[in-house]
Design a protein that fits this description.
- This protein is an alpha+beta fold.
- It folds into 2 domains: 57 residues; 95 residues, H-NOX domain, CATH 3.90.1520.10.
- The protein is 51% helix and 17% strand.
- The chain contains 8 helices and 4 strands.
- It has a 4-stranded antiparallel beta sheet.
- A hairpin with a 2-residue loop joins strand 1 and strand 2.
- Helix 2 packs across helix 3 and helix 3 packs across helix 4.
- Bound molecules: protoporphyrin IX containing FE.
- Protoporphyrin IX containing FE binds next to helix 1, helix 4, helix 5, helix 7 and helix 8.
- The site of protoporphyrin IX containing FE (HEM) has 25 residues, from helix 1, helix 4, helix 5, helix 7 and helix 8.
């Protein structure tokens, strides 16, 4: 995955455990600043190793860490240069999710080699969304759960995310939330 993902992971570990914990993680995985270049593409196995090592240090399972990281990514993207694209993507949960592919298309244009996911809204009614996530990658289900929770946090709504079905390259998520709009 792109180094920008590694940098977000580093920031999460920094904030929760401090710099020494991150440096210990780097030492353990024999990585350093060259594995943290925003615009470089790294093997997914490395990204997953970083997540697994961070999970151990945060005293979380890998699944729990993927959820925490998904939630964190939304906060991370709200800061700095990514904040304006987040702002323009949507003003509520349903419209934001409906525009996610546009967001990725826009960022992906400047990121050759990015393997971006796609999200389709299958059902949308007040307080209930059914979303299909498609990806060439496997194993990121919990990350997506965390991202969807992060989006609910962003729009200040309470809700639950569950899995409605799984296909070969897709997962259907069911989101029920208290719609306050
Ligand atoms: C400004 C905000 C965002 C940026 C810059 C961004 C960018 C990226 C990048 C660079 C990747 C990795 C692609 C690769 O290295 O192959 C990625 C993956 C991903 N993004 Fe985003 N993204 C943003 C927001 C979001 C949001 C809000 C969601 C919410 C659902 C999301 C869902 C995902 C998922 C699930 C993946 C994993 C890729 C896969 O499933 O194959 N992203 N994104």
């Amino acid at each position: 995955m792109y180094g920008m993902i590694h940098r977000a992971m580093r920031q999460m570990v920094f904030e929760q455990l401090g710099e020494d914990a991150w440096l210990a993680l780097e030492q353990r995985l024999k990585i350093g600043p060259t594995e943290l270049l925003t615009a470089m593409v790294y093997e997914d196995t490395l990204t997953l190793e970083i997540i697994a090592e961070a999970a151990a240090r945060l005293n979380l399972t890998v699944d729990e860490c993927l959820i925490a990281f998904g939630r964190y990514w939304i906060k991370y993207a709200e800061q700095g240069s990514l904040s304006s694209i987040m702002k323009f993507t949507g003003q509520n949960l349903a419209s934001f999710i409906a525009n996610l592919d546009r967001l990725h298309l826009a960022v992906g244009a400047a990121m050759p080699g990015a393997q971006l996911p796609s999200f389709a809204t299958l059902e949308s009614e007040s307080g209930h969304l059914v979303i299909e996530y498609r990806s060439d990658r496997v194993g990121l289900e919990k990350f997506v759960c965390g991202l969807l929770h992060g989006l609910m946090d962003r729009f200040d709504v309470q809700g639950d995310v569950s899995i409605a079905s799984r296909g070969e390259k897709s997962i259907v998520f069911d989101i029920r939330y208290q719609d306050r709009q």
